[in-house]
Structure to design on (786 residues):
């Protein structure tokens, strides 16, 4: 809708003018923000793959997930979006903390991938992406432009569905209503599941102090010696010399 | 370059037309692929875990898109609340999965003093 | 505002939108930045009075009004240092992450009726979630600084914030349940009228839960006595040890922004939001619409009310800071897990029972607008759908038949 040829020296003013001249009615703000959030989400997702430093990976992951939360808000799923922010951010926060704790020593900050693996992953990934894109673009109904409205908030009906009462969908008494029950049972199952996971994770990760000497021995037998000397030194409670962070929280304590 | 892109017909089309379900599916596909690539290439256990999060998130984008009252407004093509409910369950279970995976990673680190998954070959025959 | 720009000033569409958006953003930004300046001055004065000193007295007149401005100029002029082993990108990024999180949460915060950046259906949830993002900046700062003090401070903060989100969420849920909505505008509207309509005085359980909320809010914004992340007696300055100049001041602005935010949230959730203790607007007849300016006067009154309450909350936080000694980390965790969480859980159950057994409150005649159970909620499956007009139900049913072959 805007003429393509642009004189190079006029690029900045002209595109600004072109953008400013676009009438509000022509711009679909929903699409505009969708584009913004989609670009952020995809860009940072790719950045997660490209980064090698684990802390940076975690940062990019958080930014990607936050942009996805924005996409959810745009699609009318406010509750899911807020939940995405809260849970994923909390979860990734813990991930980040672990990343810092477990890889505080310099040799572990970035564990490099070999070039062959990267090429292979790129080929397979692109093939997978092609297949997925083909699938998502092949159904005409999915390509129909959006026609609904966001007027009806979904948070309350969703909450009611979780406690087993459907206030959306077909009227009560119809056969359709009978096959669309609420989510009380899955909700309870997930709750119990979370509790089990909590206990299980705490059990798995509990401190095993007697193992630490063995851990150091194992490390000495499998690791290249460069990092081990420093690591064992920390284990014995001496100050590490190589890395600035080696005095940080180190999980393998000395023999007690 | 930005100017050319902003003034190009493609961008104009994207910015003036309402989005469709396919737009969301493309985003989901890219995130899914990035997650798979991340899982395949990272040797750091935490990196693999991040790949899993990305994959689940890409799937969630699809669920939310199919459930959206905006994208599929007339109800015939919409998953309705079911899609959003599934997305919530996915998020919750992803949190649970992350907790267990982190515990396993911590255990692995305690035993092997590394988080390199290529070293997890104790059971190799 | 957009209409004003397009119709009266005659600007073209996108330009008007952009200007309107920028003006709104700058307004919120000024609330944070100007608020931080004012609160830093207030903190100096409050701490001085508590310690029987005078505080700033010279810069800008008798009360040292301009002390914060002078500090700001000094910070701007300071050299921006970065440690040699630091991760440059993350080190530079961290203050902005912190500040952005604090700033973004203001989007959903209503300052008065209709004075809200974006009225969200899940505003309470959104604000709590976004507030949790602030800790990311702190962790990145601690990691990227390549300093032990910073790293220890950041780890402490991460553990503390993640733990305190649990009781904080439980406290927040109580007013949400009473109002039957997560929309902060609705929650504040339900407390309109005299001050006994505030959720603080709704029942004994909400009264207790308010104080649990205060404790958790102080802890979640890392103010003393929960400021382990920057315990200066142990960690030099905690996570911002290596920061100087403007970047350091961004952390400070984020901290004061978060303080104001949790105080404003306390005001909206428990203290009636923009509804004053006395329904002044109603008494003066302003809300009836006596003239063109009446709505604006009501909004201005509400704005003053809410900002006043939130500022009072911030000053109380300062009072706490300069009165109580810092807790140890085990005491912090004990407070969270052994006291705040169980108390909040029991109070939540109690408030729920109160609402079911005494929906009208102890004095039904006094009249609380939000006392009734929302219609259609307890009528069983399809209650609300059954109440819909027949044509709409028919349409939905038909649509559903089409999707299930």
């Amino acid at each position: 809708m805007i003429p393509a040829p642009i004189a190079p020296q006029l690029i900045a003013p002209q595109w600004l003018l072109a953008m400013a001249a676009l009438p509000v009615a022509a711009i679909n703000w929903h699409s505009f923000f969708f584009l913004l959030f989609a670009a952020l989400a995809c860009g940072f997702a790719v950045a997660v793959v490209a980064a090698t430093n684990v802390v940076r990976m975690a940062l990019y992951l958080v930014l990607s997930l936050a942009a996805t939360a924005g996409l959810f808000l745009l699609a009318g799923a406010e509750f899911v979006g807020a939940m995405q922010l809260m849970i994923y951010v909390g979860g990734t926060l813990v991930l980040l903390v672990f990343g810092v704790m477990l890889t505080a020593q310099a040799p572990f900050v970035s564990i490099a991938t070999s070039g062959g693996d990267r090429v292979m992953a790129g080929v397979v990934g692109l093939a997978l992406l092609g297949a997925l894109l083909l699938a998502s673009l092949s159904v005409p109904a999915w390509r129909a432009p959006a026609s609904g409205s966001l007027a009806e908030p979904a948070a309350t009906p969703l909450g009611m569905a979780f406690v087993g009462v459907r206030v959306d969908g077909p009227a009560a008494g119809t056969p359709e209503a009978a096959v669309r029950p609420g989510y009380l049972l899955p909700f309870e199952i997930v709750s119990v599941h979370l509790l089990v996971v909590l206990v299980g994770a705490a059990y798995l990760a509990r401190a095993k102090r007697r193992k630490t000497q063995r851990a150091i021995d194992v490390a000495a037998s499998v690791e290249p010696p460069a990092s081990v000397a420093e690591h064992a030194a920390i284990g014995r409670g001496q100050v590490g010399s190589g890395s600035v962070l080696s005095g940080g929280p180190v999980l393998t304590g000395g023999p007690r | 370059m930005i100017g050319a892109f902003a003034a190009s017909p493609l961008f104009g089309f994207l910015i003036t037309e309402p989005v469709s379900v396919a737009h969301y599916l493309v985003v989901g596909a890219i995130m899914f692929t990035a997650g798979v690539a991340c899982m395949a290439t990272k040797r750091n256990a935490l990196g693999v875990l991040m790949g899993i999060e990305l994959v689940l998130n890409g799937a969630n984008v699809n669920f939310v898109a199919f459930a959206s009252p905006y994208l599929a407004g007339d109800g015939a093509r919409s998953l309705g609340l079911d899609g959003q409910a599934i997305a919530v369950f996915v998020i919750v279970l992803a949190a649970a999965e992350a907790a267990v995976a982190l515990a396993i990673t911590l255990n692995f680190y305690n035993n092997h003093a590394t988080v390199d998954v290529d070293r997890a070959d104790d059971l190799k025959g | 505002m957009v209409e004003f720009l397009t119709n009266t000033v005659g600007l073209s569409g996108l330009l008007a939108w952009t200007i309107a958006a920028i003006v709104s953003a700058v307004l919120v930004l000024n609330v944070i930045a100007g608020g931080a300046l004012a609160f830093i001055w207030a903190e100096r004065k409050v701490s001085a009075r508590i310690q029987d000193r005078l505080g700033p007295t010279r810069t800008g007149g008798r009360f040292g009004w301009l002390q914060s401005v002078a500090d700001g100029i000094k910070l701007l002029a300071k050299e921006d240092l970065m440690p040699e082993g630091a991760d440059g990108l993350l080190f530079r990024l961290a203050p902005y992450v912190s500040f952005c999180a604090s700033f973004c949460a203001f989007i959903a915060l209503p300052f008065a009726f209709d004075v809200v950046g974006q009225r969200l259906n899940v505003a309470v949830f959104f604000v709590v979630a976004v507030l949790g993002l602030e800790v990311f900046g702190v962790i990145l700062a601690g990691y990227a600084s390549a300093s032990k003090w910073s790293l220890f401070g950041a780890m402490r903060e991460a553990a503390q914030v993640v733990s305190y989100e649990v009781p904080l969420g439980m406290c927040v849920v109580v007013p949400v349940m009473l109002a039957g909505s997560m929309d902060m505008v609705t929650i504040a509207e339900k407390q309109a009228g005299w001050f006994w309509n505030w959720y603080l005085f709704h029942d004994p359980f909400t009264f207790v839960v308010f104080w649990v909320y205060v404790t958790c809010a102080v802890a979640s914004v890392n103010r003393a006595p929960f400021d382990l992340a920057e315990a200066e007696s142990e960690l030099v300055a905690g996570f911002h040890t290596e920061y100087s100049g403007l970047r350091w001041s961004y952390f400070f602005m984020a901290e004061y922004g978060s303080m104001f935010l949790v105080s404003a949230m306390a005001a909206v959730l428990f203290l009636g939001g923009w509804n004053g203790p006395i329904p002044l607007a109603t008494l003066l007849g302003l809300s009836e619409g006596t003239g063109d300016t009446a709505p604006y006067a009501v909004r201005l009154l509400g704005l003053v009310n809410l900002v006043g309450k939130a500022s009072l909350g911030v000053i109380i936080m300062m009072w706490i800071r300069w009165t109580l000694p810092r807790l140890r980390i085990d005491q912090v965790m004990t407070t969270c897990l052994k006291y705040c969480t169980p108390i909040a859980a029991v109070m939540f159950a109690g408030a729920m029972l109160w609402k079911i057994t005494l929906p009208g409150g102890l004095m039904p005649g006094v009249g609380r607008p939000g006392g009734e159970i929302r219609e259609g909620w307890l009528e069983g499956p399809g209650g609300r759908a059954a109440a819909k007009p027949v044509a709409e139900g028919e349409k939905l049913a038909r649509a559903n038949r089409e999707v299930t072959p």
Notes: Chain B touches chain A through 92 residues (CB under 8 Å). Residues 56 and 90 of chain B are 7 Å apart (CA to CA).
